[in-house]
Fold:
Amino acid sequence: MANQEIYVRGASDTEARGPFTMEQLVSLVEAGQITAETYFYDAATEQWLLISSSQQMKSLLWPEKKKMGFKQKEFKVVNEDKANSDTPITVQQFLAAAEGKTEDTKDKMDKSVMMMNAALWGTRSAAAISLLSAATLILPGIDDVIALDLPKIALRPLMFLGAVDVVIGMLLLLGVISLYPFVRFRAAFGLGCMGFLFMTQGQVTPMIAVAAGSVGLYFCTIFLSYIPLAVAALMGLGGIIMLATLSYS
Structure:
C-alpha cells in the first residue's frame, strides 16, 4: 500500500481527491486535511473505507513515535559498610571530610600546608641570621656609635651594612616577605664585598664564615622543604656565629 496511489474523500464530498502517494497523504495529515474519519478507496475490496477502520492505513499515516526517556540507573552507596553501620556521621566528621581530612587521610599532612610552614620558618631563620649579622657588624664599634664619633664610624663601613641587617631582620620578623629579593641581594652583596675584603687580607677562615652565612641567608628565602631549609638555616647561623667569634677574639 505504501507504493500505491490512493484516492480519498470526505464524508460529505461528492468527488474524490487524488491520486496521492503515501508520502503526500502523510503531509495532508500533518496539515490537518485528512483525519481518521476520512474515506480512502481500497483497491483490494473496491470499496470506500474509513481510514480509522484500517489498521494498516492508521499505522502508515500515524506511526507510533518512540518515547524518549532516561533509563533509571541503580543507585549504589559508595561506602556501603559505613552506610549500613549503626554509628551516625557527626558534624565534625562531615566538616573534616569537606576539608579532605578523613580517617584515611588524617595522618597525612597537606603538601601546601607543609610548604607554607616551611616558608614561615624560612622567614624566621632569615630574620635570625640578619639580626645576628647586624650584632656582629655593629657591636665592635658600638662605643663609637654611642659617642657619635663620625670619623671613627666612617672607618668601619661594615657598620652601615649591619644597620641594613637590623632593618631587614625587623621587617622579616613582621612577615614582610616582599623583601625577599632585597634579602637575596644583601646576601650576594655581603658575600662579594666581605668575602673579597677578607680574601685580600689573607683571612681564609672569616671568608669561609661570611660565605656560609651569606649562602645560608640566601637559601632560607628559596627552600620550601624542611630538610633543605634546616641545612640552609644551620649553615647561615653557623657562619655568622663563627664570624662573630673571630671578631671578638
Notes: The two ends are 119 Å apart (CA to CA). Strands lie at 6-9, 17-20, 39-42, 47-50. The mean pLDDT is 79. Residues 6-61 form one domain.
